[in-house]
Amino acid sequence: MTDDTQEFEEVEPRKPPQSSSEEGESLSDLLLDYWRLLRGYYWLILLACILAVGGAYLWTQQQPEIFQASSKVVFHQSDNNVLGRNIEQVDLLKPGGRWEFEQFWNTQKQVFESRWFAKRVVKKEGLLEHPDFIGSPDKKGEHDRQKRMDKAISKLTGVSNVSLAEESRVGVITVRMKHPELTATIANGMAEAYVEYTKEFQSGGLKKITNWFDSYVANKRKELENAQSKLQTFKRKNNILSMSYEDRQNLTSQNMEAINQKLIDVRSELASERALLEQIREMDQKGDDTNEAIADLVEDESLQKSFQRESELEQKLAELKTRYLDDHPEVQSTAEQLTVVRDDIRSRIDGIRSGVTNRVRVLERNQKSLEQELASIREEVFELNELGVKYTQLKDRTENLKELYDTVLKRSSELDINSLYTGNNIEVLEEAPVPESPVSPVLPLNLAVGLILGIGLGGGSALLWDALDTTIKSEEDVEAITSKPILAMLPKLDSGVLRGLETIGDSPADTITHTAPKSSFAEGIKTLRTNLTFMAPDDPPETLLITSPGPGEGKTITSLNTAIAMAQSGQDTLLVDSDLRRPRIHEALGLERETGWTSMLKGDATLKQATQTTFENNLSALTCGPIPPDPSELLHSDRCRDLIGEMRNDYDRVIFDSPPLAAVSDALILSHSVDGVLLMVEFGKTRRETLERSLEQLHGIGAPLLGLVLNEISTDSKGYGYSYYRYSYYGEEGERRRKEGDDADERAA
Predict the structure, then answer these.
(1) Terminus-to-terminus CA distance in the chain, angstroms?
(2) Do 596 and 610 meet the contact criterion of CB atoms below 8 Å apart?
(3) In 238-300, which residue ranges form alpha helices assigned H by DSSP?
(4) What is the pLDDT of residues 409-439, one digit of tens each?
(5) What is the C-alpha separation between 411 and 155, in angstroms, rounded?
(6) Angle 35-37-40 (CA atoms, 0-180°, nearest 5)?
(7) Whole-number Cα distances in Å, 120 to 153, 192, 203, 248
(8) Distance separating alpha carbons of residues 388 and 246, to the nearest angstrom
């Protein structure tokens, strides 16, 4: 198997690029990007860290020592009513239970942070005259004293902080200052001042409420006395002193009810008697014997017996007359008895008539009397009703005032008792000790913060630098610009290996494919050779132009090593230095430049006369020759095209090393006379806009661009992994030379 075939099998086919919009960047790619940034800009991050840590150290050394002292205030949950069931306990500052305490604490925190409370603490602890707090006082009057007070209040609110201990009912008062004794004094003073404030608030508030209640009770007492006096005068005036109005009203109602019932009875009896009298009169007018009828009306039993006796005597008299004469003693005796009975009946009937008449008259008088008495009682009721409205108003007002007076009097007594009780819901739990060591500045913490800031600043600067860097840094950058393939990716040359290589011309890198054929760079060149060969196996490009967007992007070294690789594969190769402005092929190969490409263009020499042999079999070189004043005119000539055709006939491969596209138009002129053009792109140097402009130039004239070659790829560049070449393809000789170069570097150091 030939070397070419072996190299072709070793070349792993490149996968088609994947669109970031379809799959996105994987985590590994992202990590590789960050690793590349770290490797590329580690010096920037390291510098930022050194500056930040150094700045943090200097800043820490300049900061004054700060001491911290903390006192604690506990808020007990409200006690049960210690005053008993009948007296309500009054707590104006009531911490409350679990749910009410949060709102209570937020309110009290505002008290702690208020300027009023700060002024109270300043006065209590004498901070206005304390020399370590706001300096020594001067003697310029009250105006300056007010300024000092404002300054002291502002400083106290600035050095103190109040917070609630987690999952507790304990407030923590923290003070941070330069003087440890003063720090503890202020922390304890704030706790004591707050407890005093709560007690004053409770007692003072109760005193205000009690005074108000006392005044209110006195006013209500006067109103009650006035109302009672008016009610008494009204009762005396209306004769309801011995008997209450309600009793009098009830008695009058009872009298009216009794008289009304009597009147009803009299009227009923009068109606009956009048009806009886009317019947008797009707009977008398008819002239009939009405005695028995009247007797039936009055239902008198003795009278009925008299009528029965009369009937018996009449029957007996009639029987006697049938037997005896009228003068018979029995007849006369019976007749006399009958006369007596009839006289008695007549007398009784007359008595009944007069009795009914008298009863009617008596009942009529009684009815009239009762009606008059009922009317009088009704007038009395009307008068009582009129009195009742006024009486009720006076009585209700008196009773309401009495009830209100009793209520406020009871409440006032409860407040008096409350004012005598001092609760302990809020008290100082712990006094602040004098701090022994400062809490700030903390050198390790500040250095750590400085280090973090340095890393952040350095990383941000690296990201910004990388974002502003428009150079080509990956295969994807090239694929985003053009669809032309990348035919090879050449690694960055190891300086240690170069130092150990044989130097033929100007630099050992120019002939590394000859001196270190198993190096990673030589393998990249052979990959380029293989790709060029198999791009068109039946008709491979015989003439090849290698150029770049700008100077110093590796076109000459690539031309040299590509020509060496072509010659090593057994192809008769000619390397032409067509850079007629800054030629370098003769220096790289250690050749003469007096006769060369320009000599042929001017007709001063033939191809055979101008061509020089090299150290590599099958490789010939055509140097630049004398530098002409008008290179472009020479390249535009028909003779140039004829000479290229002659080279094509005499050699298997002809490689032109041309000037950059951005500098002159020589490469564009030559591109029309060759089979293919290779465009060099240096990793981390060639800018995207420069590459785009070069591609536009080549496409604009229809140049046969075969593809691009990425040059100077770092071993840690994303996706390239050239450490594989570094360790696997150096071979024994290359590895030895690399070690020798490293040893030489160490000795030089």
Answers:
(1) 46
(2) yes
(3) 245-286, 291-298
(4) 776 676 565 555 566 678 999 999 999 999 8
(5) 45
(6) 105
(7) 9, 11, 18, 69
(8) 9
